[in-house]
Amino acid sequence: MNDLNREAPQIMHIDLNSAFATTEQQAHPSLRGRPMGVTNRISKHCCVIAASYEAKALGIKVGMRLDEARVICPEFIILETDPPKYHYVYQKLCAMMKDYSPHVVMKSIDEGVMDFHGTLGTVHHRSLVDIGMEIKQRMRDEVGSWMRVNVGIGPNRFLAKQAAGLHKPDGLDVIDHTNLLDVYKSLQLTDLTGIASHFEARLNAANIFTPLQFLQATPDTLKRIVFHSVIGEDWHQRLRGFEVDDVTTKLGNVGRQFVLDRASADDAFLLPRFHYLCETTAMKLRYNNVDARGILVWASFQTGESWAQRKMFRSTFYTNHEVYRRALYLLNQRPKHMIIRAFGLTCYMLSPSNRSQMSMLDSVNREEWLTTAMDEINERYGTFVIHSADTVEAKNIVKQKIPFGSTRYFELLLKQG
Amino acid sequence: MDSEVIVNERVEVATIYRTGVDVSRICYPARMKYQGQVIEFTELGMRHPTAQGKRMVHVFEMSNGVNDYRLEFDAEALTWTLVAIREGKYERP
């Protein structure tokens, strides 16, 4: 094929596969070589969010419930997540990557991308394979001998990530125009990053069953028949090694949700938990330095039905009290007889904060000063040292989960820890 | 099976400080006295700092070759706490 990107690969993808499990095995030598996993909150039906390679080899998968995993392997060990430990590894990885390129973007807690465009000739005079090998060695020297890193090198972010997944758990691969077709020949459609069963079905409907057929499809076919949008054209470029994923996303909304420890319709049980969700959502707003104008509150019921209510307000808000007051107004409109299994809230229509602007109303100012004072105390002594009295119980029940999708709230989570 | 024992007790610790190594291994506990027994550490699993408010606590995950020990050093109060012991198992040679 003549329309492949023939540029020398200058994107490196670094991936700590099974990051949490590997980190725990590094920290606990007694767990090395044993099937183990990590979960957010240990219970019989908790979900394995990371499994060691030994566990994966037995067939234990991420997302599996603990009781299912123990059927496969009764010796399977489960640990609760320890965010400061993962943050330390994350910081080490970040610092290492920044030693080699000024263009580093962390895609999540356990993976990041380095862009060497414009730096390779002047700064390093070395091949990216050399640099990749050095990063793998530095992880072993500076974090621990059990740490394993996958490195992928490619002409764009997609192919670099694809390369990082070729030889887990300790691989280093390069995909460029010389071996691209061979790599695609060895893969299934769902092996491609971003293609899951839903997109696979769409591709199959257009007579595309392999990555090679996907590569050979015209941009028009992908746009009009398969994806029904410009996403199709993006895929046409992406598969050929051209960059389409170098984009930054804007913060659209902020929220929290919680699957209740027991289903209930009782306000005395529900409201402390809901209040806690509101407080942590308000905290996220302030952490991102944004104000919200809209709130969506939702609940899913034991019957399988769900309910949601949203409202836009004239004024913006960001304090714990205001988020709770407005969210509670919406929650009180739910069908009260229904037994709730899970609920949550989302603040939207976010705008940069105008907190430095004093209000004409003294009551508004007093509330803002109170929030600032509380934040300062929590900043100094640890988050939730001071909080609303009725969230005491909920604080120990509703745990912040490890954010998988981004590293946006990692610092905030650590403060809560 | 998984067996972690929460201890949370102050302990006496002998520490080694080294030069010429990576900062993650510059300082670590060599032995600890716990319940009258001296435990010699053979491996530093990981050391990571964690902030409790403005107070810095360094967590050391240590091993004596069989069990794993989680020790915390409070950098403000200068105290060592044995937080937990994870029981390992003797491997047959």
Give a brief rundown of this model:
The complex is a heterodimer of chains A (417) and B (93). By secondary structure, chain A is an alpha+beta fold.
Helices and strands, with pairings:
The complex is a heterodimer of chains A (417) and B (93).
Chain A: E1 11-15, H1 19-27, E2 36-39, E3 50-51, H2 53-58, H3 66-72, E4 77-80, H4 83-98, E5 103-108, E6 111-115, H5 120-124, H6 128-142, E7 150-154, H7 157-164, E8 172-174, H8 180-185, H9 197-205, H10 211-216, H11 219-226, H12 231-239, E9 254-264, H13 267-287, E10 290-301, E11 306-317, H14 320-331, E12 340-348, E13 351-352, H15 362-381, H16 392-397, H17 410-416
Parallel strand pairs in A: 2-4, 7-8
Antiparallel strand pairs in A: 1-6, 1-7, 2-3, 5-6, 9-12, 10-11, 10-12, 10-13
Helix pairs in contact in A: 4-6, 11-12, 13-14
Chain B: E1 4-10, E2 12-17, E3 27-34, E4 37-40, E5 43-52, E6 55-63, E7 68-74, E8 79-86
Antiparallel strand pairs in B: 1-8, 2-3, 3-4, 5-6, 6-7, 7-8
